[in-house]
Amino acid sequence: MWALYCTRSDAVQVFIPDEWANTGGYTEQPGGGVLVDVDHGGVPMGVAVMEPLQVDLTRVIPGVAHDFGLDADAVIAAMRAALAAPDREVTIDVRGTAA
User: Fold this and answer.
1) Nearest Cα to 83, choosing from 9, 13, 32?
2) Mean pLDDT in each 10-residue stretch from start to end of the chain (99 residues)?
3) Rounded to two decimals, what is the model's pTM?
4) What local confidence, expressed as pLDDT, does residue 63 receive?
5) Is 97 inside a domain boundary?
6) 99 in any annotated domain
7) What is the tally of structural domains in the chain?
8) Is residue 16 in some structural domain?
9) How large is the angle between the packed helices 72-84 and 57-68, nearest 10 degrees?
């Protein structure tokens, strides 16, 4: 997945590459400044958080991730990486647990 924190719009977004190829869809707004882009089949293509520096990602992302079948830890890791490198695309590959 890849992520971007845009300082101009004050939003961080994670894009799910396998799903991003899908065209069309709509945006769900589950609350807490979180937006989820989904395709017409309901498959999530990306997650965004508005004003992410004012939000505790560990509180808002897990519920949304659960509802949309996403890996909360991977989404949070990608968002944190993007916040650490503002206005640049960050690519992250989070694999299964090492246990």
Assistant:
1) 13
2) 96 81 76 89 91 95 94 95 97 79
3) 0.89
4) 95
5) no
6) no
7) 1
8) yes
9) 140
